[in-house]
Amino acid sequence: QLQVVESGGGLVQAGGSLRLSCAFSGFRIKEISLIAWFRQAPGKEREAVSAIYFGDGSTNTPRSVENRFTISKDNAKNTVYLQMNNLKPEDPAKYLCAAGRGIWEMPPLEDWEYDWWGQGTQVTVSS
Question: Are 108 and 124 within 8 A, CB to CB?
Fold first, then answer.
């Protein structure tokens, strides 16, 4: 199987920054081609905030956060990061990392394209 573990969440003031990490391991690790970050706040639908191909590093980030959130990877560590800057009151949520297979023109932002999920890490923003 595959283990996906997020870390780096916490409490930050509005305007501050956090870097989330997603580490994955397991015997199915070679099947992975892409990693994405999603977030889900209470009462809201889960939404993607960024995705990256683990091979060539191409990314896909929705316009809603593209000027503030940056996804990156460290192949040697089997880890993907999400740098979040200028955090706003609408950003608090549980942030989840997901791993998937397959290749499309761009890393997909649809959650059904991802097969393995972590438990999430909580991000809280104080005003």
Answer: no
